[in-house]
Amino acid sequence: MKLLEIKGLTARYGAADVLKGLDIEVEEGEIVTLLGSNGAGKSTTLRCISGLVDHVAGDILLGGQSIMGLKPEAIVRLGISHVPEGRRVFPGLTVRENIILGASNRKGVSRRALEGEVDGMLEIFPDLRRLENALGWTLSGGQLQMVAVARGLMAQPKLLLLDEPSLGLAPLIVQQVFRVIADIRRRGTTVLLVEQNAHMALSVADRGYVLETGKLLVSGKPEALWNDPQVRAAYLGGHAA
Questions:
Q1: Domains of the chain
Q2: CB 59 within 8 A of CB 8
Q3: Cα–Cα dist 136/177, whole Å
Q4: What number of other Cβ atoms are within 10 A of residue 60's Cβ?
Q5: What is the DSSP letter of 135?
Q6: Rounded to the nearest 5°, which phi and psi values hold at 19?
Q7: H or E stretch including 42?
Q8: What does the alpha-carbon distance between residue 36 and residue 234 come to, in Å, rounded to a whole number?
Q9: Residue 215 to residues 42, 111, 133, Cα–Cα distance (Å)
Q10: Cα angle at 30 between 10 and 46, to 5 degrees?
């Protein structure tokens, strides 16, 4: 089943078109990754899905329903959660408080129930258990990323948008983050992933799209992208084996 469909998406900042007629599909239960160089339009695509870009054309459908023109809070209520680049954890709140904020779109849920769900997040992210009362400003980059993802999951999304989750992290922490991403899918959440680390992204993805200056260059399964000489030379760092 197609969970997300992007049809002819065009997005503009000022006088410049950042996306130019983009078509993307995400099936329910998949991890799909968007690859490409800086400025290719990857993060803008996520921002359009979340309703954060004003000047857009084309269509974006969630479960067959158009979400174009909806406000971000309405899009979250329909089942899309966006973990932006930069983590944006509140420095003066504890880990537990930051995570629980992710459920702010869910009206009528008791505080007790939400606290129980936070405990569930701490099972997914066991490294945060000992830090649940630590303030945001005391956390490392990897810990901040885990908090940001846990906060996104508290919205109980159908589709989780992840923007550069490995940015600035040490290699061992990057591996941990991607293990969590794979686990999130196993638990039933569809993931659309923007990531500069193409090797890690393709190691967990079912399919990938490569963008170039706002247009789709090529798409396919990870093995096909690995073996496309043009894509490998430009974006994946080397030649096909």
A1: 2-236 (3.40.50.300)
A2: yes
A3: 18
A4: 24
A5: B
A6: -115, 140
A7: helix 42-49
A8: 9
A9: 10, 45, 44
A10: 30
DSSP string, 114-161: HHHHHHHHHHHSGGGGGGTTSBGGG--HHHHHHHHHHHHHTT--SEEE
State how far Cα 232 lies from the chain centre.
23
Helices 141-153 and 171-186: angle between axes, nearest 10 degrees: 10
- Residue indicated by tokens 């991403």: 181
CA–CA distances in Å: residue 241 to residues 35, 170, 234: 20, 27, 15
The runs of H, that is alpha helices, within 28-78 are 42-49, 72-78
SS3 137: helix
Q: Are 30 and 186 in contact (CB under 8 A)?
A: no
Residue that the structure tokens 């200056």 belong to: 213
Q: How many residues does the chain have?
A: 241
- CA 105 – CA 138 distance, rounded (Å): 27
Please give the chain's pLDDT, 241 residues, in tens: 899 999 999 998 877 788 999 999 999 999 999 998 888 899 999 999 999 998 889 999 999 999 999 999 999 999 999 998 877 899 999 999 999 999 988 888 888 898 999 998 998 888 899 999 999 999 988 899 889 999 999 999 999 999 999 888 888 888 888 988 998 999 899 999 998 888 899 999 999 999 988 999 899 999 999 888 877 776 665 443 3
How far apart, in whole angstroms, are the C-alpha atoms of residue 224 and residue 49?
A: 26
Euclidean distance between CA atoms 81 and 52, whole angstroms: 12
Q: Name the amino acid, one letter, at 57.
A: A
